[in-house]
Amino acid sequence: MELTNIASERAVLAGICRYGLDTYLEVEALLEEDTFSVDYNKVLYKCLAQILSQTDKVDFVSILSAGQSLLLGEYLNKQEVLKHIHGILETPIDENSIKLHAQKIRRLQFGRHLQGTIKESWKNLAAISGEETISEIMGLVETPIQDASLIYTKQDNFRPKGVGEDIDAYIAHLMSDEKPSIGLPTGFPSYDSAIGGGLRRKCIDLIAARSKAGKSLIGQTIAINLASKLQIPVLILDTEMSEEDNRNRMLANLSGVPINEIASGRFTRSEKDKQAVLAAAEQLKEVRCKHINITGKPFPEMLAIARRWILKDVGFQPNGRTNDCLIIYDYLKLTSAEGISNALAEHQVLGFQMIQLHNFVVEHDCSCLCFVQLNRDGITKETIDTIAGSDRLVWVATSISIFKEKSAEEISDDGPNNGNKKIVPLVARHGPGMEDGGYICCQMNGDVARIREIGPVRINRRDFPQRDPNSEGEDEGEDS
Predict the structure, then answer these.
(1) Distance, CA of 400 to chain centre
(2) Handedness of CA 30, 35, 41, 42 (dihedral sign)
(3) Which of 4-13, 16-25, 76-85, 352-361 has the lowest mean pLDDT?
(4) What number does CATH give the domain 6-155?
(5) With contact defined as beta carbons under 8 Å apart, do 458 and 443 qualify?
(6) Does residue 150 or residue 109 have the better pLDDT?
(7) In Å, what is the CA distance from 374 to each residue of 212, 243, 383, 414?
(8) d(CA 471, CA 465)
(9) What is the rounded CA–CA span in Å between residue 40 and residue 45?
(10) Mean pLDDT across the chain, nearest whole number?
(11) Could you name the CATH architecture of 189-457?
(12) Do residues 76 and 46 make contact, with C-beta atoms less than 8 angstroms apart?
């Protein structure tokens, strides 16, 4: 069945002819020549666009004149075309219904586009050799369809707006929908405050750490906070941890039972631990978090996975805006040798990947928390240049922080109740960051996969938030 609605196409063209420039500008973002399925209507729309680029009204003579300037005069002089134009000009139409008809024919154009995309995918599938991976074969079909879907979704509302346009409605929205933070809350309130109110849309927030320092635990803790407590979808793109390891850690975090007890099955020896793990398993069923190990996958395939997740699991608001979501990339490194050559070093390839990731989160209007590796100098220094590939990461990162173990001196100065780890915000484009030498204290209990924020400390140790020794979590175990 042909995807077309001649009546709606006629209504849109009649509305533009009758009401002129204001109506045309109202629907212009939804229309192009191929939005119309009939040649008569395609030609007439081109003429109307030509006319309204120069004046604000349309009549029969101006249509013929525009046709001549577009070298369509011979076509327009055909008897059946002239009759069609007269019919359009004489068609009565309610001004308020024109945009609804424009939206309808835009969706039909999208349907026709998908039909063509599917036909092209069919041809691409016919050319496979059998050497491709299943994921690569799926990409031949899914990626073109996803790209088309996102283009049309975004274009529905893609137009410049006056800075004061709809400002009253925007202020009313802010007043009626007060939020605790501007971005997504991580569950680390001092960190959120330092970077400017949580993890914002269209932004990449970086956390750098040495290997085995606990960066994956931070990511999992934030994922649980958002996906379990707030029911915000989270995708973990993991370059190291298997699905089994990720589950064991999340079960440990929720149950308080040590990871090794869960992984070995020894938790069943204690009825209390067994019930805690079973309860945690029930919680995980409701957690809106997905995890995938992307080791060995080319970077474009990783982006395709994220795009597929946004389309299938996150979805969009009625205005086309992506629903709240978070992508956690743990961590930025080469997962394959793709892209490395005599001309490009590894850090340059990582820089290009970071730019691609930034473009992705801007295009798809989502938030991203990305972990990166701290080089050996980061053991003693806390500066940007201790982060691998830092010169290229700073270009696009919204915030950059270091997560590391406290020194013995810092633990002594801060006191035994103020944690064994620290977060050091170095760059914060939207927030105040920290005073020089300041940091945020955290307690990491690796055996149960838990990290808690305690609070900020200044270099002079004044105004440190003292904890109650009897507060919850004091005896959660030793750092693994």
Answers:
(1) 18
(2) positive
(3) 352-361
(4) 1.10.860.10
(5) no
(6) 109
(7) 11, 25, 10, 24
(8) 13
(9) 9
(10) 85
(11) 3-Layer(aba) Sandwich (3.40)
(12) no
Per the model's pLDDT, the better-predicted residue between 376 and 134 turns out to be 134
Sorting pLDDT into bands at 50, 70 and 90, what band is 238? very high
* pLDDT mean over 163-172: 77
Question: Which residue in 433, 468, 436 sits closest to 454, CA to CA?
Answer: 468
29-49 average pLDDT score: 93
Q: How far apart are CA 208 and CA 423, in angstroms?
A: 10
Q: What is the pLDDT of residue 78?
A: 93
Element (H, E) at 380: none
Residue 176 tokens, joined: 């009626």
Ramachandran region, residue 315 (left: φ > 0; alpha: ψ -120 to 50; beta: rest): left
Within a 13 Å sphere around the CA of 184, how many CA atoms are in the beta-carbon half?
Answer: 31
Contact 350, 389 (CB under 8 A): yes
Spatial distance between the Cα atoms of 424 and 374, rounded to a whole number of angstroms: 13
Contact 155, 317 (CB under 8 A): no
pLDDT at 390 over 70: no
Single-letter code of the amino acid located at 246:
N
Determine the pLDDT at residue 153: 62
Measured CA to CA, the distance from residue 385 to residue 288 in angstroms comes to 36
pTM here is: 0.67
What's 40's DSSP letter? H
Sequence-separated (6 or more) residues with CB below 8 Å from residue 272: none
For 424-475, the pLDDT digits (tens) are 998 899 999 887 778 999 999 999 999 999 999 865 444 444 444 344 443 3
Per DSSP bridges, beta strands 439-445 and 450-457 are: antiparallel
How do the domains of the chain map onto residue ranges?
A: 6-155, 189-457
What tokens were used for 62? 């101006």
DSSP 71: T
One-letter amino acid identity for 27? V
Q: Identify the CA nearest to 223 among candidates 190, 260, 258, 184.
A: 184
Q: What is the 3-state secondary structure (H, E, C) of 132-198?
A: CCHHHHHHHHHHHHHHHHHHHHHHCCCCCCCCCCCHHHHHHHHHHCCCCCCCECCCCHHHHHHHCCC
Taking every pair of Cα atoms in the chain, the longest distance, rounded to a whole number of angstroms, is 94
Enter the tokens of residue 333.
Answer: 């490194």
User: Whole-angstrom Cα distance, residue 357 to residue 306?
Assistant: 10
According to DSSP, the residues that pair with 316 across neighbouring strands are 322
The HSE-up count of residue 222 (CA atoms within 13 Å, CB side) is 31
Cis peptide before 331 (omega within 30 of 0): yes
The contacts of residue 29 (CB under 8 Å, 6+ apart) are 155, 156, 157, 158, 159
